[in-house]
Amino acid sequence: MDWLKPEKARSYFATLLERVGERAQQIVPHSNLKFTEENLLREYQRSPHKVRAFIQALTESDSPDMLLMAWRVLQGMEIERVELNYILSQRFAIRVTLRSPYGDEPEIYTSDDIDDAALIRHFGIMKMDEKPVFDGFYPSSSARSGS
Amino acid sequence: MIGGQDIHLPVRSGPEALDFAVRAILRRWKHAVFVANRRPEMLTYDRLEFHDEHLEVIVYRDHGACDLWREKGYDESLRGTMVYLISDPEDLTIVVEDEPSAEIKLLLQTIRNGIAVTFEGNHFYAEVA
After folding, report:
1. Structural domain tally of chain A?
2. Fewest Cβ atoms closer than 10 Å to its Cβ: which of A41, B18, B50, B52?
């Protein structure tokens, strides 16, 4: 298949990363995020599983906002709220609110593409005092077992 | 460190489980600071790295606790203010006091159950572990 050729894939992901970077400049300009191959490689050397999780997300979603959301969680943002609205064959909407542990303004990310539901599977799940917590963004198990 | 007990959790990926445990502790201790791989710097979460096969992270409840640990070593007044995490490729070790405080016990339960559900997709294991 044509789209599986390496040069096509590389171009697709480079363009997508550029769009994520543009959204980062608009939503979190203070963070100075640049999604270049070099930066991802540098981050991979620091924390390989974080970049693996992000690369998986790149194959699951083409929404710059939702991919930026994933990256911000990887950086340490807390998942304050996830709102999901789904009606069979009519509507899908997800809205994720992230909270900064450092007191910065909350960040809100939205999508109406049901493909983005795949990203929820990457959230860490825990109970704190029997209360629900989503926290962190991790590679799915198939990639993990090969690492 | 303090006598203490080692709690071993078999995991598929030590660094990922370590990351999970660190974040779980941060939910409880909002001002936690970290010391990684026996280096002197006090780190925040965004400066932690999870890249080696063997990683050690000491989590202090806050700067003050870290300073006191460095000054006094273990002291009864510091009970329940530090957790020692060690990750290997397929193992996460959590070192706590012989008789952990109620808060530390709850943290251990959160970490153990969360790792089972998040990485193993196994609610049953989480409940009986």
Report:
1. 1
2. A41
Cβ-defined contact of A76 to B45 (cutoff 8 Å): yes
Say if A14 falls within a structural domain.
yes
pLDDT for residue A104: 85
Report in angstroms the alpha-carbon separations of A100 from A74, A80, B108. 12, 9, 24
Name every residue whose Cβ is closer than 8 Å to that of residue A131 and which is 6 or more positions away in sequence.
none
Assess whether pLDDT exceeds 80 at residue B129.
no
| Within-domain flag for A23 | yes
Across chain B, mean pLDDT equals 89
Q: Is the pLDDT of residue A142 over 80?
A: no
End-to-end Cα, chain B, rounded Å: 26
Best residue in A125, A127, A130, A133 to probe B by mutation, most B CBs within 10 Å?
A: A125
Q: Do B114 and A138 touch (CB under 8 A)?
A: no
For residues A135 and B126, give the distance between their C-alpha atoms in angstroms, rounded to a whole number.
17
Chain B contact for A126 (CB, 8 A cutoff): yes
Q: Is A146 within the bounds of a domain?
A: no
pLDDT over 60 at A146, yes or no: no
Q: Which of residues 10-39 of A touch B (CB under 8 A)?
A: none
Q: Is A45 on the interface with B (CB under 8 A)?
A: yes
Task: Scan for tokens 């480079």, then name that residue.
Answer: A14
Q: Which domain holds residue A87?
A: 2-137
Residue-level pLDDT at A2: 64
What's the pLDDT at B54?
A: 92
What's the CA gap between A138 and B12, in Å, rounded?
Answer: 12
User: Does A144 lie at the interface with B, CB-CB under 8 angstroms?
Assistant: yes
Does A145 have pLDDT greater than 50? Answer: no
The reply to whether A57 falls in a domain is yes
This model of the complex carries an ipTM of 0.91
Q: Which residues in B have their CB inside 8 Å of a CB on A?
A: 12-13, 15-16, 19-20, 23-24, 26-28, 30, 45-46, 48-51, 106, 110-111, 113-114, 117-119, 121
